[in-house]
Amino acid sequence: MWFERLQNIDRRVIYTILLIVLITPMIKPIGIPLSVNSTTRQVYNLIENLDPEKDIVMMGMDYSVAGQADVHPQAVAVAKHLANRNIRNIMVSFVADGPMLAEKIIGILGDRVTYGQNIVNVGYLAGGESAIKKFIEAPGTTFINDHRGKPLANMPVMAGIKDINDITLILDFQTGSPGYQDFLRQLPAGGPLYAAGIVTVSVPNVMPYLNSGQLAGLLQGLRGGAEYEVLIEEPGEGAARMDAQSLGHVVIVAFIIVGNLAYFGSKRKGKTHGGGDKV
Questions:
Q1: DSSP alpha helices (H): ranges in 29-148?
Q2: Is the CATH number 3.30.420 carried by domain 38-235?
Q3: Which of 157, 166, 210, 262 gives the lowest tally of CB atoms within 10 Å of its CB?
Q4: In what order do the strands lie in the sheet containing 193-198?
Q5: Domain coordinates of the chain in residue numbers?
Q6: 112-160 residue pLDDT tens
């Protein structure tokens, strides 16, 4: 009887249990232990080795709203790290959704940053690779006003930026085109270090560029964001989603095991009853 009940659990019960398991860590992250990938640690070390007195970082906000589930936690964690170290952060977008997502990050940072002093959202420049080329050729004058309409020339965060070599590190968060290939084609030899945060499905395509030394570091999908949160000791959206994903997989596997045990148990029970009728 129990085997039959387990095989016929109402699907609404299964969905309800799965929903509770997924929502709970999103509200309160559990903090399931994560090992940190070497590529994530490379990005962390790049920022740890920067000098707040002279080094400048450009954050490329080149991901869409559709792909933000994978990449946004990376960008938030990196922005927190930069803010904690008081590194100047120039947020540039070559994707239309970028400025909106940059503003969202600035809001999350709150009192950690002073807008115009150590962070700025310069806005969106259309044109894909051509726009990247234009910015690399003249990073200090390509944008006259920031995304909020304020003159950039009056902002301390932009002081001293005349050439692309005045920027120490470019960290580009991307979900497609433009992306790493566009930057690598346009960046001059001996220019700023280049690292990327990408969606998980793009990792196999990007790894050869990392292994050849063209990329200085790589954040790999949602897990890359969660790992970075571990490194800066600030669990956030990435860790919560990884918790939900991990627990969701556990529940699904558990239901598969229970279903199979119930199936084979009822089958065995049927054979036993059937065998008792033989003469």
A1: 38-48, 68-84, 98-109, 129-137
A2: no
A3: 166
A4: 119-124, 88-93, 56-62, 169-174, 193-198, 218-220
A5: 2-30+242-268, 38-235
A6: 999 999 999 999 999 999 999 999 999 999 999 999 999 999 999 999 9
